[in-house]
Amino acid sequence: MTANPIRPTIPLDRDGVHHGFLRLPHSRNDSAWGAVMIPITVVQNGNGPTALLTGGNHGDEYEGPVALQQLAATLTADRITGRVIIVPFFNAPAVQAGTRVSPIDQVNLNRAFPGDPAGTATSKIADYFNRVLVPMADVVLDFHSGGKTLDFLPFAAIHILPDARQQAASEAAMMAFNAPYSMRMLEIDGAAMYDTAVEAQGKVFVTTELGGGGTATTQTIGIARKGARNLLIHAGILNGRPDIAPSVMLDMPDSDCFVISNDAGLFEPLVDLGDTVTKDQPVARIWSVDRSGQPPVTYTANRAGLVTARHFPGVIQMGDCMTVVAVVLT
Ligand code: ZN
């Protein structure tokens, strides 16, 4: 298979703290032999497990990038056993543009796996992680939030996996991350996701949805910081004691969790994040943005549960995910 063109500017397997870049050649109008430079920090101390931590898979989600920038700037080798690979801006061009997908090729990194070493810039990033960095890791954490168009209750998440031992190990890592909510998450479209590629390699994988709306709060950044630290302690890499508080277990058993809009218009939520709803309870109304005097269209919950995600912008399009109702496990 074609070699991936990305080259790290630092060693990935040497003791100490190394800050550098993953250099992705990118020939373009303003730089004929230019490159996309993806920041990377590797902290290593002897033999031990490896954690791979990523933020900015989507460029408009900020808890992961902030928490990982702080970790990269402060983590010292004497506090760990093993290795921590920190990539705060997984899809760096998207982060720099503040957009979900890459401005270079309009590709969503989290729908680009397993990637292609001869593909577009985003496909090359995916291929490099899939074939080079993920195989080095024992535990993988990929930070997400809702971005500009969704908002979430803060949760860490895993998926239901065919391998029971891998699932149990991932669930233990999710509980160690210890977000206020912990979710067994159902994906609408999981085939080309980073999550799926990492899980297919048998790795312990934790993802998050920590907030959204294209920003971050002190609360959600705090959850990200604490979660990364707790997870590194749980993995046997970072010295210290985890900081554990109660976490509500949530499940998304099937597609009834999603309320999808069949209309376009002005979005009026009738419930907020964290509200408990009953089956058939109205969750939102869509009003016309074209004319006055029209009745709204009312949408209802397909199941009882906890409002876990919502559409964020004030205007909604046909096909948008409006509300997510998850089931609270007791
Ligand atoms: Zn995301």
How would you describe what is shown here?
With 330 residues, the protein is an alpha+beta fold. It has two domains: 243 residues, Aminopeptidase; 74 residues, OB fold (Dihydrolipoamide Acetyltransferase, E2P), CATH 2.40.50. It is built from six helices and 19 strands. It has a 15-stranded mixed beta sheet that branches. A four-stranded antiparallel beta sheet has the order 16-15-13-18, with no helix packed on it. Strand 8, helix 4 and strand 9 form a beta-alpha-beta unit. It is globular and about 65 Å long. The N and C termini lie far apart (48 Å). The structure holds zinc ion (ZN). The site of zinc ion has 5 residues, from loops.
